[in-house]
Amino acid sequence: MNIRESLIAIIVLSICVIWALADGAAAQQGIGSALRLMTPLLLACLAGLYSGVFDIGLEGKMLMAAFTAASVAYLTGSAWLGLAAGIAGSLSLSLIHGLASITFMGNQLISGVAINFLASGLTVLIGQNAFGLGGRTPSLTGAGRFQPITLPFADALRDVPVLGPIYSGLISGQTILVYVAFAMVPITWWVLFRTRFGLRLRAVGENPASVDTAGVSVTRLRYTAVAICGILCGIAGAYLATGLSAGFVKEMTAGRGFIALAALIFAKWRPWQALFATFLFGLLEAIANLYPNLDLGIVVVPSMFMNALPYILTVVILAGFVGRAIPPRAGGEPYVKER
Amino acid sequence: MDKMPKWADVILTPLISLILAMGFSALVILAIGESPWEALKTMVQGALGSSYGWGFTLYYATNFIFTGLAVMVAYHASLFNIGGEGQAAMGGLGVALVLLYLPLPHWGLALPAAMIGAAVFGAAWAFIPAILQAKRGSHIVITTIMFNFIAAATLNYVLVNLLRPVGSMDPATARFPASTNLPSLTDMAAAIGITWGRNTPANITFLVAVLACFLIWVLIWRTRLGYQIRALGRSEPGAVYAGISPVRITVIAMLISGGLAGLMAINNVMGEAERLVLNAVEGAGFIGIAVALMGRNHPLGILLAALLFGFLYQGGGELALWTSIPRELIVVIQALVILFTGALDNMVRMPLERLFLTMKRTSRGAVK
Question: pTM for the full model?
Answer without folding.
Answer: 0.88
